[in-house]
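Hi R.,

Quick one: here's the YbbR-like protein sequence you asked about.
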Amino acid sequence: MFNKLKATLSKSIKSRKLNVFGLFFLLSFCFWALTKLSKSYTETITFEIVYKNLPEQHHVDIDSSKKIKVGVKAYGFNLLKYYFFTPKFQIDFKSDVAVKNKIYVWDARQNATKINEKFKNSIEVISVQPDTIRFPYQALAVKKVPVITDISIAYASGYDTSSTIKVIPDSVRIIGSEKLIAKIKEVTTKKVELKDINSNIEKSLEIEMTDLLKQLKISDRNVIIKGQVEKFTEGTFNVPVTIINLPADTNINYFPKTIPVAYSLSLANFKLVKPSDFRIECDYKDINNTEKTFLIPKLVKVPEIVKSARLKQHKVEFILMQ
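And here's the predicted structure, written out as tokens:
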């Protein structure tokens, strides 16, 4: 009935001839349509299935050709819209599906409320076909691997990062067969070069999808890098040299007694460091029972706010005293 009505309406709209006969015909048709649409009908409405929250740990066998056919009883006015478009019905694997005998199962009776919600109260649901939909699945493995960034950063003169560049997220989950996942230890971003950087860094990086990764599911295709960039400066302190592990019966004279330490840090923190924040040690154990006449100084203490530090001298001469 509704297919005929739809065809007649379409034909009438396309016709551009307007005459008395046509006017009376149109009025007659409207009365006829109103009469037909005011009657109660039993029809079958076909729903296209849309899937949500498919489980990551399983590969679910989805048949895209499956439909849900709902038998309803209602007045023609309430059913008319279903003849002009195909409605969609969502199956949520988190709330609408249960696992039975290692198969995901959707049961129409258990989802009756959700089906009724697709219609207004003026439409009565009579039947649902199929009453059960089964989804076979295969178990998959899940593995978390770190993200390695392939990025080159060239800072503008006098600028640098005041902390380590953060990667968000710093790891991703890959999902697939155990055999393929075992081959992956990490994922890498596509190569990016940043030049003349003098402000804070915040950039999206795309993960390099290798042929192997393309066969798997990955939780994130992009990561964000963030870094705080500040104006930097350099300073130098003369720091005392400390000799450690010197035997009680051994007396030495060494020189120099202090070594210059060059350091770099943000301009904002420049006044917060002092020579006592650094420590230089020479370990006598390193040369004990040898013929060496010099010690190797090591910078063993550096303030956290210092970006980098280095010794300007790498030998401490000494002589044994009687």
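Residues 20-37 form the longest helix (18 residues).

Cheers,
M.
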